[in-house]
């Protein structure tokens, strides 16, 4: 068990963000940078002796290099067992699945999600706990504290391990099992959905589907599940080979970045159903022929149709959504007579609710949807859920969505992002809003009266922890809402996100255009925050 204790100096910038530590690859390549963070994580865990870990990533550049370092450090710190996805590959939901299935102590996931990859791109690392979910803030804070005071780290002197052959190996006394990256996850999906019903749907001549893996991790998962197990036509999955630089793309499944899929789905030869997932496989975008389903609507529709899916047919315990996600799901929860929860942005906040069975389905406006089957959001799970609904209802995506609006009304919703703003300018916008909060309630703008204005604080009902400063909310009588927050996942400057929502139940207006319907609220959002004045930006970089 020969290992070395290496003396190191602390870095001051290793504070995990919304989803782990994300930095440019070149930052991670600095001497001791990754090692410090990994040792800080192990120090935060405390006694690692005899414990087990799952390790895998989205296959981006630096994935395997990082895994070799982490394996040697895990061995030197006393871990006894590690499961690694073959070739270092595990999508984020698959990692969560494997942690739970093998009852591992935790997991380390290497990913910067949808951020561009490659030598000049981003890399990321995060720690998940034994429930399969992202570490809560108490642990990420402890990791950060440790990273600030670290003086040395431990690393095995053994040689690299081959990651391409499935089977058991040993490194400095630690057992390493290289496992198939896909099968445990695919088996879990078979226990949730009605695969026979979906198979019948996919076999119909009238049905057609496209899934865009965006050159990232979901390719092998989608091919195994959709094409091999469910019999979808070969070629259903496009861009299905994961590349270390994601083909220089930006694997974020939204209308801006999933260009190839969007072009096909909004053409005269559009398939009936289209979907995409992101770099590490936890996000999803759902499309019908010439039709886009917002993630907020998708959550509400999955909840309203959950009784069609075997795993949820006995009912849901509750629905949770992140604060900026539209309130559409709350209306479904109300009708079903179940709890509705509003949490801060970040999947980790759903963990306690899922563990305590206070929520079964969760979703975020940022193209994340999932359930209690694992503790991460899950892109392919959402796609299979939609396929199960389409199979059971024999209707188009557009018909299912518009019928939902007929029943529940529609929460018109848009998010405007201003990316890569200098930090100081973004802070000015937020400060200007913060300064107005005490005086906004009761004021009327364009006929809308402010009913509340605050900076969102979340009180976790399970562990009573409080997370404050989670985004500025301005709510109006009747449910309209403007939310502002700074992204916690960017790596360049700041990204200001403005979320705008308006409820409509007039049946004649349900199919109106979103940007037009929201135009006056969008204008109000801009003028309240003085976005143009502070940032000089007249248009958002991305609209979802
Ligand atoms: C990641 C997290 C999500 C979160 C999203 C948006 O994908 O896993 O839970 O909603 O980032 O974060 P941001 O801070 O960039 O708005
Ligand atoms: Zn992701």
Automatic annotation (TrEMBL):
Catalyzed chemical reaction(s): alpha-D-glucose 1-phosphate = alpha-D-glucose 6-phosphate
Limits of the Alpha-D-phosphohexomutase alpha/beta/alpha domain: 14-151, 184-287, 296-408
Entry coiled-coil feature ranges: none
UniProt xrefs under SUPFAM superfamilies: Phosphoglucomutase, C-terminal domain, Phosphoglucomutase, first 3 domains
Transferase listed as a keyword: no
InterPro entries documented for this protein: A-D-PHexomutase_a/b/a-I, A-D-PHexomutase_a/b/a-I/II/III, A-D-PHexomutase_a/b/a-II, A-D-PHexomutase_a/b/a-III, A-D-PHexomutase_C_sf, A-D-PHexomutase_CS, Alpha-D-phosphohexomutase_SF, PGM
Domain of life, per lineage: Bacteria
An annotated GO cellular component: cytosol
Cofactor dependence: Mg(2+)
Gene3D superfamilies named among the record's database cross-references: Alpha-D-Glucose-1,6-Bisphosphate, subunit A, domain 3 (3.40.120.10), Alpha-D-phosphohexomutase, C-terminal domain (3.30.310.50)
GO MF annotations in UniProt: magnesium ion binding; phosphoglucomutase activity
One Pfam family, short name: PGM_PMM_III
The protein's Enzyme Commission number: 5.4.2.2
Example GO BP: glucose metabolic process
PANTHER family assigned to the protein according to its UniProt record, in alphabetical order: PHOSPHOGLUCOMUTASE, PHOSPHOHEXOMUTASE FAMILY MEMBER
NCBIfam families assigned: PRK07564.1-1 (NF005737)
Protein name: phosphoglucomutase (alpha-D-glucose-1,6-bisphosphate-dependent)
Species whose genome carries this gene: Methylophaga thiooxydans DMS010
Lineage, top ranks: Bacteria, Pseudomonadati, Pseudomonadota, Gammaproteobacteria, Thiotrichales
């Amino acid at each position: 068990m020969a290992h070395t204790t290496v003396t190191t100096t602390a870095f001051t910038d290793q504070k995990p963000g919304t989803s782990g530590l994300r930095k440019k690859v070149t930052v991670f390549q600095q001497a001791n940078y990754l090692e410090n963070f990994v040792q800080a994580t192990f120090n935060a865990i405390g006694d690692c002796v005899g414990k087990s870990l799952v390790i895998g990533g989205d296959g981006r550049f630096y994935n395997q290099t990082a895994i070799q370092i982490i394996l040697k450090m895990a061995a030197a710190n006393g871990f006894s067992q590690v499961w690694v996805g073959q070739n270092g590959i595990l999508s984020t939901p698959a990692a969560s699945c494997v942690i739970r299935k093998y009852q591992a102590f935790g997991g380390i996931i290497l990913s910067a999600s949808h951020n561009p990859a490659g030598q000049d791109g981003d890399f990321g690392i995060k720690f998940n706990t034994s429930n399969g979910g992202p570490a809560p803030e108490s642990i990420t804070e402890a990791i950060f504290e440790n990273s600030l005071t670290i003086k040395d780290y431990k690393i095995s002197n053994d040689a690299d391990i081959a990651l391409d052959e499935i089977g058991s190996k040993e490194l400095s006394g630690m057992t390493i099992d290289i496992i198939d990256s896909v099968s445990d996850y695919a088996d879990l999906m078979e226990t949730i959905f009605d695969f026979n019903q979906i198979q019948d749907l996919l076999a119909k001549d009238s049905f057609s589907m496209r899934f865009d893996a965006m050159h990232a991790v979901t390719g092998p998962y989608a091919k195994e599940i959709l094409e091999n197990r469910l019999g979808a036509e070969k070629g259903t999955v496009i861009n299905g080979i994961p590349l270390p630089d994601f083909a220089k793309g930006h694997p974020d499944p939204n209308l801006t970045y999933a260009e190839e899929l969007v072009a096909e789905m909004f053409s005269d030869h559009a398939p009936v159903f289209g979907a995409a997932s992101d770099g590490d496989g936890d996000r999803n975008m759902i499309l019908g022929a010439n039709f886009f389903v917002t993630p907020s609507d998708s959550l509400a529709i999955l909840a309203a149709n959950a009784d069609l899916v075997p795993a949820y047919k006995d009912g849901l315990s509750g629905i949770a959504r992140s604060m900026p996600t539209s309130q559409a799901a709350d209306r479904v929860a109300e009708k079903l007579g179940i709890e509705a929860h509003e949490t801060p942005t970040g999947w980790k906040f759903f963990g306690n609710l899922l563990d305590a069975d206070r929520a079964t389905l969760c979703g975020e406006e940022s193209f994340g949807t999932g359930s209690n089957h694992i503790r991460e959001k899950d892109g392919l799970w959402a796609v299979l859920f939609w396929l199960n609904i389409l199979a059971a209802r024999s209707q188009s995506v557009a018909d299912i969505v518009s019928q939902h609006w007929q029943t529940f009304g529609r929460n018109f919703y848009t998010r405007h992002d201003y990316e890569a703003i200098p930090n100081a300018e973004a802070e000015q916008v937020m400060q200007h809003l913060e300064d107005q909060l005490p005086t906004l309630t009761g004021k009327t703008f364009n006929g809308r009266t402010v009913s509340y204005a605050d900076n969102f604080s979340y009180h976790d009902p399970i562990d009573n922890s409080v997370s404050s400063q989670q985004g500025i909310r301005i709510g109006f009588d009747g449910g309209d809402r403007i939310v502002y927050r700074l992204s916690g996942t960017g790596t360049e400057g700041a990204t200001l996100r403005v979320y705008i929502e308006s409820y409509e139940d007039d049946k004649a207006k349900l199919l109106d255009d979103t940007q037009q319907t929201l135009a006056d609220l969008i204008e109000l959002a801009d003028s309240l925050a003085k976005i143009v004045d502070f940032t000089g930006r007249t248009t958002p970089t991305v609209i979802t």
